[in-house]
Amino acid sequence: MPSRTRLRMSDKSRNWYLIPYTAWIVLFVVAPIALVVYYSLFDIEGKFTFSNYAHFFTPVYLRMTLSSFWYAFLITAFSLLVAYPAAYLLTRTKHKQLWLLLIILPSWINLLLKTYAFLGIFGTYGFVNAVLETVGIGKQQILFTDFSFVFVSVYIFIPFMILPVFNALEKMNPSLIDAARDLGASSWTTFRRVIFPLTISGVKAGCQAVFIPALSLFMITRLIAGNRVITLGTAIEQHFLVTQDWGMGATIAVFLVVVMALIMVLTGNRKKREVQG
Fold it and tell me: Helix 232-241 to helix 59-92 angle, to the nearest 10 degrees?
């Protein structure tokens, strides 16, 4: 009996600890999403309608959706191409924690400040054009291009890709690499058959951390790409701040929330299958 009483008391105490967590989820996750869904059911005149959802599936918004997914894919792919070798090198350095801190430090700086810094770096009289002029190439239009948008986005998201990949590489048993080399595997075969499969969970987590926020970028598209790159995030900003069509803006936001939730669920399901396997 005393043991049962202690178990009941521990269960009650755990339930009390869940109250702050549940309140946080309800106030800052469930309530905002419910509010966005509510606004999506009204047109610009405040009348209840489902026309916003029908309007979303018109060619204009479908092209915008494809563009958002394309740029998010590019940003994620380039981030992975840079982050994986960087994370691998970090695991081989002596002062890995110091180097990791230096990589993380830029993420503590305000996003707007970093974006404005690139306006100066890529500007007509900026550092990059000064170098190009010195080597004889001449000034180039770097700002307001797809290149500048993808470059700045990759720079901003790099730490979020490096961290999970670095953690996955750190958890990997190094004796497996030695065993592969002892069996005659080349460096490329070792990477393809041993290293990458064992760190795929970190790659998935990094891609998720980059791809999801990259879908809804809007400030960088305006400042760096000069609105040449139109994404769903840009459309949401325009509808809320310019056209005042909150219903259409909320409808696009609902679509983004659904897509992000699907990506997270699919990633979670795969992880569960891997653990069960």
Answer: 120
